[in-house]
Amino acid sequence: MKTRFNTYDIVCVIAELQSFIGMRVNNIYDIDNKTYLIRLQRTEEKQVLLLESGNRFHKTNFEWPKNVAPSGFSMKMRKHLKNKRLESLAQLGTDRIVDLQFGSGEAAYHVILELYDRGNVILTDYEYTILYVLRPHTEGDKVRFAVREKYPQNRARDSGVISKEKLIEVLTNAKAGDQLKKVLVSNLEYGPAVIEHVLLKHSFPNSTKIGKNFDPMENIDKIMEAIRDAENIFQNSKSGQTMGYIIQKKEERPTSDSNTSDFYSNQEFHPMLFEQHSAMPHKSFPTFNEAIDEFFSSLESQKLELKAVQQERDAMKKLENVRKDHDQRLVALEQTQSVDKQKAELITRNQELVDKAILAIQTLLANQMSWEDITEMVKDAASKGDPVASQIKGLKLEINHISVYLSDPYADSNESDVENDDKIPCMTVDLDLALSAFANARKYYDQKRSAAKKQQKTIESQSKALKSAERKTKQTLKEVQTITNINKARKTYWFEKFFWFISSENYLVIAGRDQQQNEIIVKRYMKQMDAYVHADIHGASSVVIKNPTGNPIPPKTLNEAGTMAICYSVAWEAKVVTNAYWVWGEQVSKTAPTGEYLTTGSFMIRGKKHFLPPSHLVLGLSFLFRLEDGSIERHKGERKVLNANEDDSISLADSEMSKDEVEVEILDESDEDELVKTSDENTVNIEKTDATNNVDDEDSSDSEDENNTKFPDTRIKIQHFSGTKNIITESSKEFEEEQNEENVIYLGDGKPIVIKPSQNNTRSRGCSESSYKKQRSMEEKEMKNELKQQPAKRGQKGKLKKIKEKYKDQDEEERKLRMEILQSSGTAKDTKKNKKNKDSSDKSKKPAPKAPRIFTPKEPNEDNIDDDDTAVQADIDMIDALTGVPVTEDELLFAVPVIAPYNTLANYKFKVKLTPGTARRGKAAKTAVAMFLKDRAINQREKDLLKAVKDEQLARNIPGKVKLSAPKLQNLKK
What we know:
Blueprint: H1 7-16, E1 24-32, E2 35-42, E3 45-52, E4 56-59, H2 72-81, E5 86-91, E6 97-102, E7 109-114, E8 120-124, E9 130-133, E10 137-139, E11 143-145, H3 164-173, H4 180-185, H5 192-201, H6 220-237, E12 244-254, E13 260-270, E14 282-285, H7 288-297, H8 299-349, H9 351-366, H10 371-383, E15 392-396, E16 401-406, E17 427-432, H11 437-489, E18 499-502, E19 508-511, H12 515-525, E20 531-535, E21 543-545, H13 555-567, H14 570-574, E22 580-584, E23 588-589, E24 603-606, E25 610-612, E26 619-627, E27 661-664, H15 669-693, H16 700-710, E28 715-721, E29 724-730, H17 733-739, E30 743-746, E31 752-755, H18 769-789, H19 796-806, H20 812-821, H21 828-841, H22 865-880, E32 882-883, E33 892-901, E34 911-919, H23 921-934, H24 940-948, H25 951-955, E35 962-967, H26 969-973
Antiparallel strand pairs: 1-2, 2-3, 3-4, 5-6, 6-7, 7-8, 8-9, 10-11, 12-13, 12-14, 15-16, 16-17, 18-19, 19-21, 20-21, 20-22, 22-25, 23-24, 24-30, 26-32, 26-33, 26-34, 27-35, 28-29, 30-31, 34-35
Helix pairs in contact: 5-6, 8-11, 11-24
C-alpha cells in the first residue's frame, strides 16, 4: 500500500496549492508528533493545509482529531507564523523537499518539509537560520540540522532530462539480469509509477531484464523516447490542476452460504490513471488533493473493514478445516480396515509358517537367552537359508512382538493373475508372541470391525458436527459485521479525552488527566456559571461541573464531583479519606496577587472556598448506551434533581458493602508478596480502631479534640424524609471565618498558599444562652424518641453520642447559613429574612462578613442569546442521548464505558464497584465486562455493543489498582 509521496505527486500537489498563496495563517494544530494542520483564511475563504513529516502534504476537508495540548513545535510555529501571509510554495530542485514561505522581507519565515527517508519539518527565519527542527540530526561530517544552524539550500538535487550518452553509460554499467525499470528509477527523478507507465506505453513490460531477453543498445532510441514522454508528463502537471485517482483492490468477503460479497480496499493514489492500473478497479476525483484526502481519511475505516474480512476468512477457514478433518478421518478409517483385513488373511494363509516363527522365538526366550543373542541366532539362521528365520524381519521383544514378512502362498506367478481382485499384496505383519497364528488373525479382524464401527459413527455424527460448525461460523460472521458497524458508528465525544462522568442529576463533570489537561479544562471549557472542584490534597485533578443552564448546582452533584476529585488524587493509592472544596468558575484565575502568571496547572482561587464532606474512595464501572434519536424521549428526566420530600432510594449507606455484594481481589503474582506484607499492618489498624471505639466517657473530650483537628469543618445532622435518612454535612462557622476574604493559590503540586487579609472578621452567635438551652433540650428529646422508635444499627449508638457531644454548641442560624454554603434544601425567603435580621442586630457591632454568594448568571446580550441557547441546548441534548438503563424497545447505537462515583451508578443496568486494591485495572475491567456478558438480563444487542468496546477504552479512566465487587457476584460466576 502506498503511504508517501513521490516526486510526481509533489509536483502535482504544489501546482494545485498555488491558489493558497496570499492566504493568512489563522492557527496551527498538531494531530500527532509528526503531523500538523495549518489553518489558512482570507475574505470568505478558509482552507486547511496538512503536513506530515516524511509522507505527505495536501489540502484537507476532513475533520482530524487534534491533540488536547499543542506541542512545542506547534507553539513555536504559532508564535512566528500566526497572521503571516503565505507568500510562496515551491519544491527545492527536483528533490522531495517543499519550501513554504510565510511573510516577506526580513519578517519572512520558512517551513521546510522533507518527504523522504524518516522525514523532517524545519522552521527557519528569512536567512534560513533554523529556529526549530522536528528531528535534529547530522548528515555526513559537516551538515547539522539543529537550532541556530543554517539550512543548506543547495542540498536538493536539480537534474534535467538525461542525455543519450548518459543513458548509454547507465545501461552499460548495469548488471546482467537487472530489471530495466529498476535501473531507470534509480537514475531518474520521475518516480516508479511514471517510468513504469511510459515503458509499458513503448512495449517494455515489467519482466524486461537487461542482458537476458533484452539488448539495451538495440532499443536505446525507444528508451529515450519513453524518457521524453515522462518529462512531458512532468511539465504538463506544473501548468495547473490534475485529476486524482485511487487504485483499489478487490477483496472477496466470504459468507457462510458459500457466496462472496466484494469489498474494495484502497491501495494507491495517483494524479493520473497510469497504464499499469487501467485494468484495475479505481475511483476518480476532480482534483488530486481530493483523492489524497479521501485516501488518508478512510484509512481507519478501511482497517476496520480489512480486519473484519480477515476474521471472516478465519471463521470460514475453521469451518473448512472441520470438513477436511471429517473427510480425512473417514479415509483413514477406510484404509485401516483394508490393511487389517489383509494382515488377517495373510496370517491365515501362512498359519504354519507363523506358528513356527512364534514357537522358535518362544523356545529361545524359554532358554533364558539374552535378546542380543536371540537376534544374532536369527540372523545366522537366515543367512544359512532357514525358511522360517529368513521371514523374520525384526524382533520387538520389549513389547513381546516380532515382525514377519508374509506373502500369499496361493497367488499364481502368471501375469494373467495380476489383475485378480483376490490377490493380497506382500507385507510385514506384527505378531504377538503370546498368541497363536489364529489368535493373531482374529485380533486383526477385531481391529477391522472396530474401525468399521468408528467409520459408521463418524458418518452419523458428521452432519451434526458440520451443522454445529456452520451455526458457529454464521454467528461469528454476524458478530464481526455487527462490531464493525458499531465501530464505524461510534462517535468519540469531546469530553472523553478527560476523566468524566454524568452526575445523577444530569450534569456533565470533567477532570484533567495531567497538568496540561487541567490547564485546558479551566481556560477553554470552564465558564463563569460552572463549578470548580478540587480535593484538599496534593496531586489531585481539577474537576469542573458543566452548568449550561446557569441554575444553582444541587448538593448531590457537588458531592459526586468531590468524590471524583478525591479519587483522582494520591488519596486513592494512599487509601486516605479527605475533603474537597468547590468554588465558582469566576473565582479561578491564572494571575497571582503580585501580577505574576502561574505555571501550567496552577490556579489562583479568590474568595471563599466551600468545603464538601469527606467522601469514601468508591467508584463504579458501568456503560452508557447511545440512544437512537427516536428513543431519547423515552428516557427524558431519567437523571433529575430530587427534592427533599422525594424518596431518594440511594443513601450514603450504599457506599458500604451490602449483604449481597462480594468483594473479589484479582491478584497478580507480583502482588501476592505485597499483600502478605500489608496484612500485619491491617491487623494493627483494626486493633487500634477497636480500641478507639471502646473509649470511656472520661476520654470523650480528648477524642473530641482529636477529631476536631482531623475534621475541623464537619457537622452532621440527621433528618428523616419519607422514611429515608439523609445526612447533611456542613462547613463549620470557625472555618468559614478563617476562609472568609482569603486568597488561595493552588500550585501544580497541589499545595495551597493562603494569603490572609489584615483584618480578621468575626461574627456573633446570634442567639441567647437560654434560648439555646431550650432548643438543645428539644433536640435531645426528638433524638431519644427517634432512637426508641427504631432500633439502632450496629455502631450507630456510639456515633450518635459522639455527634451529640461534638455539635452541642450549634444553633439554628448557623445551620441555615451552612446550608446556604452547600446549596442545600431550604427556602430563599427564610434565608433573606434571617440575613436581614442578622444584619440589623449586628449593625452596632463589628462589620459582618460577606454572606455566602449564590452565583446568578448575568443576563446575556440580545445579540448573543441565540448562540448561547444553541450551545446550551447542544450540550444538554448530547448527554440526554446517553442512558445507563436501556429497555427492550430502545434502539442502541454504541456503548461508552464510564467510571463514576458508585452512588451515581445506582440505577444503571450494568455496574461493578471499584475500591483501592491490588488488582491491575486492565484485568479488573475485563473481568467486569465478562460478568456483564453473563448477566441473564442482557440482550443480544447489548452483548454486541459491550464486545465492540476496546480494551484500552475500558481501563483508561480507572485511577489505579483496584478491588472489584458487585451484587450477587457468586450467582453470576456460577
